[in-house]
Amino acid sequence: MSLIDYIDKESIMIDVQETEKENLLSKMVERLNSCGLLLNKDEAEHAIMAREQLMSTGVGNGIAIPHAKTDAVKSIILSVATIKNGINYKSVDKKKVFAVFMLLAPRDSASENLKVLTAIAKILRDNPHFLEKLINAEKADEVMELIAKEEIKI
Asked: Which of the pair, 154 or 109, is modelled with greater confidence?
């Protein structure tokens, strides 16, 4: 399966105006809920926040990949948010985050979950041009197209 198969286009958030990591993550969960993708919004949000408390999912180079396994979803869900001005995310490199890939997966989806995380990491690894294009995308369709094109290369 391709990464875009896990993304509901309506869940993509372009140039989110947020300065606090927790608020951004809450907004992303709320968007997933408003798209009808969650079984339990509160449980999904708790799972993401609990994972974030263990260790920041800001992986560096302007990227964060918050992820959690939860009973709040029936299948793997991937959402994307861009923040043109960046957000202080307590990333491993202490730099701002400009793109967030949120992954929620059912508890029993360990191998598929790992495959999706690996695919995300591959398209983002040492690829500043992709990140720049992603940040400058103005529509959800553009984000989907960029991810699809980048995934073909891996």
From this structure: 109
| CA–CA–CA angle 18, 23, 26 (5° rounding) | 125
Helical ranges in 55-109 per DSSP H: none
Structure-block tokens of residue 139 = 């529509």
Would you say residue 70 has pLDDT above 70?
yes
**What is the C-alpha separation between 151 and 145, in angstroms, rounded?**
10
Alpha-helical regions (H) of the chain:
21-34, 41-54, 110-124, 128-136, 140-153
Give CA torsion, residues 114, 4, 59, 129, to 10 deg.
140
What 3-state class would DSSP assign to 68? Answer: strand
Contacts of 129 (CB under 8 A, 6+ apart): none
Indicate if the pLDDT at residue 126 is higher than 80.
no
Q: Answer for the pair 126, 102: CB distance below 8 angstroms, yes or no.
A: no
